[in-house]
Amino acid sequence: MNFFPWLTIIVILPIFAGFSIFFLPHRGNKVIRWYTISICLVELLLTTYVFCYHFQLDDPLIQLEQDFKWINFFDFHWRLGLDGISIGPILLTGFITTLATLAARPVTRDSRLFHFLMLAMYSGQIGPFSSRDLLLFFIMWELELIPVYLLLSMWGGKKRLYSATKFILYTAGGSIFLLMGVLGMGLYASNEPTLNFETLANQSYPVALEIIFYFGFLIAYAVKSPIIPLHTWLPDTHGEAHYSTCMLLAGILLKMGAYGLVRINMELLPHAHSIFSPWLIIVGTVQIIYAALTSPGQRNLKKRIAYSSVSHMGFTIIGIASTTDMGLNGAILQIISHGFIGAALFFLAGTSYDRIRLVYLDEMGGIAIPMPKIFTMFSSFSMASLALPGMSGFVAELVVFFGIITSPKYLLMPKILIIFVMAIGMILTPIYSLSMSRQMFYGYKQFNVKNYSFFDSGPRELFVSICIFLPVIGIGIYPDFVLSLSVDKVEAILSNYFSR
């Protein structure tokens, strides 16, 4: 038993270090930027150290648990813990946030506030993945809303206020359902109110009440993931946000919804999950097709990538709803894989915009010749996005496919139909992905624009892209590294799920 509060330090370090930004000597943006990057690096190294030396891979139980009484009045605890499902997203959060902070170098206006918000988001995103108390999960879930709203409304594009308002209305609206579910489950507990995950995992509810709880949580996750039809905030937000914010949104924020679906809905409400899972599979399948068909119609480059994110999250939903070891492991692999690929595509879209000052695809063309490095990197991540074998996207989608095929819950004909529709989605992905590359990089349109001085990718862009590309290739060649994190915990969840 390790009594040192590693997790508490990991969760609160970024936001507390962020407050000291306002006391740093004002000597330009350089000091603030390097201070923020240093904090992100320290946090990432600390998380990696804890994972390597204090975390047992073959133990499906909660590890590194911390439990401090916070508010006696309604038994509210600061309760944190890690297991195989949460360690992957936490490491992903550290990795992407560090690179997003490095990517934010062009931001010079209100640099102190910007970098403070980046660090506040860091804490807000690690929090939900490590919470073992329902109310703490909700507080951490809410913590990153204000930083995203401010980052979007202050450093976004022309329609930033509209996008920021839409974002906050959708996410805060979804959070009301989350809070109602949290309080309902906490107050229903047998003898005295409790919000402890371990206690609630052994709690049974009347089926009708369980369905109500499940549906409330599902609305909150459907906004965050996003699941259609509650996805419309995402393309607007991505279309207007600065690309470092987009990296955090695509890489981490969307994954919190899928994580909550496994952690709360599947673990704590198994009967309702059994009832809802066929509907989730239908929604996931429709989402893959709908977003893949909508994406080619988007003129805005970042909106097109945003719709591809919506499409890829459909595979995660199907994996979670398959209720098989393989499907659930595939969903977790897709969470990690898409975190890398989505963040990289938005980063490269943003760096392209910095150079050519164009965001509409029909105005672009011929960028490949003056900017060959950006062309090479963008093409590589587009291939990863369309699930090219040897890259992480292919393995994740393949494992989800096998999860559906081997699921004992569904009959043969529905399974064939689902797989057929998913296959159509996988065929549509290269169409919008490759047409996006064609419109951006090929043709001669760009050379007619006068007074353009192109310069290709610098060391910063190359460094960030290569840092993300290595795990994408690594997972594609050796997916067992990520799967070994979650496999025991997934088995434990499903054995508990079927035993109840």
Concise description?
The chain is mostly helical and 500 residues long. It is 72% helix and 3% strand.
Kindly describe this structure.
With 500 residues, the chain is mainly α. It is 72% helix and 3% strand. It contains 19 helices and two strands. Helix 2 packs parallel to helix 4 and helix 4 runs antiparallel to helix 6. The longest helix has 32 residues. The model has no long low-confidence stretch (mean pLDDT 83).
Secondary structure layout plus pairing:
Blueprint: H1 6-19, H2 29-54, E1 63-71, E2 76-82, H3 84-103, H4 111-130, H5 134-143, H6 145-155, H7 160-188, H8 197-201, H9 207-224, H10 233-240, H11 243-268, H12 270-294, H13 301-321, H14 325-356, H15 372-385, H16 392-405, H17 412-441, H18 459-477, H19 480-499
Antiparallel strand pairs: 1-2
Helix pairs in contact: 1-2, 1-4, 2-3, 2-4, 3-4, 3-11, 3-14, 3-18, 3-19, 4-5, 4-6, 4-11, 5-7, 6-7, 7-9, 7-10, 9-11, 9-12, 10-13, 11-13, 11-14, 12-13, 12-17, 13-14, 13-16, 13-17, 14-15, 14-16, 14-18, 14-19, 15-17, 15-18, 16-18
Looking at this protein, list some descriptive labels.
single chain; 500 residues; mainly alpha; two-stranded antiparallel ribbon; 19 helices; 2 strands; 72% helix; 3% strand
